[in-house]
Amino acid sequence: NAALQFQPKSIDLLIRKAKILIATRKFADADVVVKQVLALDKSNTAARALAENIKDIAAKNKIGISYDYTSFDKQFPDPWHLLSIDYSRSTKLGSVAARINYANRFKETGVQYEIDAYPRISKTFYSYVSVGFTDKEGIFPKSRAGFSLYANLPKSFEAEAGFRYLNFGTETWIYTVYLGKYYKNWLFNARTYLTPSSSTISQSYNLGARYYYAGTADDFVWLNIGTGISPDDRAIAQQLNSSYKLISNKASLSWRFTVKKYNSFSISTGIINQEYLKDTKGNQFELGIGYTRRF
After folding, report:
1. C-alpha dist (Å) from residue 159 to 116, 124, 151, 181
2. CA-to-CA distance for 121 and 117, rounded, in angstroms?
3. pLDDT tens for the chain, residues 1 to 295
4. Which candidate, 180, 225, 229, places its Cα nearest to that of 203?
5. Where are the beta strands (DSSP E) in 92-142?
6. Is 17 helix (H, G, I), strand (E, B) or coil?
7. Strands 94-105 and 201-212
8. According to a count of CB atoms within 10 Å of the terminal CB, is the N or C end of the chain lower?
9. How deeply is 138 buried, as exposed, middle or buried, from its count of CB atoms within 10 A (0-12, 13-18, 19+)?
10. Any residues with CB less than 8 A from the CB of 101 and at least 6 apart, and which?
11. DSSP code, position 229
12. How far, in Å, CA of 227 to CA of 251, rounded?
């Protein structure tokens, strides 16, 4: 506090003060200081991490519900529906989440069960571990798994490398690499998914721009464009179960906002133009809504 009297806009001093306030469990005061830092530098990754840490410590539990609707103009006569309910808890080792997905596809229904974890390794590295299985193969992959290693890098960069495993009766391994860069109140990112096969490597690319408009981690607008189907997109990942190499172009727009600090809402929409058979293309339209409550 004495040093801040002489340097009230010192980001290093403000972040140190916020860490001390968190350690002494003065979360409301720490939140005020973190917001000061983000007002000075909206791209500061340390402040964003502290803001998320304050939420996780002050409210260790989180429940969420989301619904995704996908319709097709040619490929399938009936729309797809996906309802997800999840619960997560913050622990000393990182957050752990359990999720139940209920889907209606091809006029059939099925349930998928998943567990996700984000173990912290160090101040620089943390990881993602995920497993899932279903009672109705065909509606979902018979089983799925994923692992990624994340790194918070200097100059406001972040990176990820990992794999996704999907079992549709035959095993599919997909490798992913990601790079993100914070600039002021923007996050620019690029991701690729690579799927090796006996003769070639299928490739999917995504470019995104996320604008944080309120200085918090849960208030942003996100534009994404890309090619191919993502194994992390639960609403349509089932389409990876195809012997034909899917060629598609896509664009999506998402909006997430908070209400009274611990309530978070999301709305998303997107369109995909896909060659689902040789020389045959169709469009699919996506709409998603979600709600999350911390407590």
Report:
1. 19, 11, 5, 9
2. 12
3. 999 999 999 999 999 999 999 888 788 899 899 999 998 988 788 888 888 778 767 788 999 999 999 999 988 999 999 999 999 998 888 899 999 999 999 889 999 999 999 999 988 999 999 999 998 888 999 999 999 999 999 988 999 999 999 999 889 999 999 999 998 889 999 999 999 876 778 889 999 999 998 867 789 999 999 998 889 998 888 888 876 666 789 999 999 999 987 899 999 999 999 887 777 889 999 999 999 999 9
4. 229
5. 94-105, 108-119, 125-134
6. helix
7. unpaired
8. N
9. middle
10. 82, 83, 84, 111, 112, 113, 114, 140, 234
11. -
12. 9
DSSP per position, 244-263:
S--EEEEEEEEEEEEETTTE
Burial degree of 154 (CB within 10 A; 0-12, 13-18, 19+) = exposed
Contact yes or no for 292/86 (Cβ under 8 A): no
Rg (CA), the chain: 21
Sequence-distant (6+) residues with CB within 8 A of 19 are: 50
Task: Return the amino acid letter for 184.
Answer: K
Angle at 152 between CA 253 and CA 176, to 5 degrees: 60
- Partnered with residue 109 across adjacent β-strands are 104
Phi, psi dihedrals of residue 58, rounded to the nearest 5°: -70, -35
What dihedral do alpha carbons 182, 119, 204, 105 form, nearest 10°? Answer: -120
What's the token pair of residue 116?
């996700």
DSSP string, 45-66: HHHHHHHHHHHHHHS-EEEEEE
For residue 21, how many other CB atoms are within 10 A of its CB? 20
With tokens 């539990």, the residue in question is 61
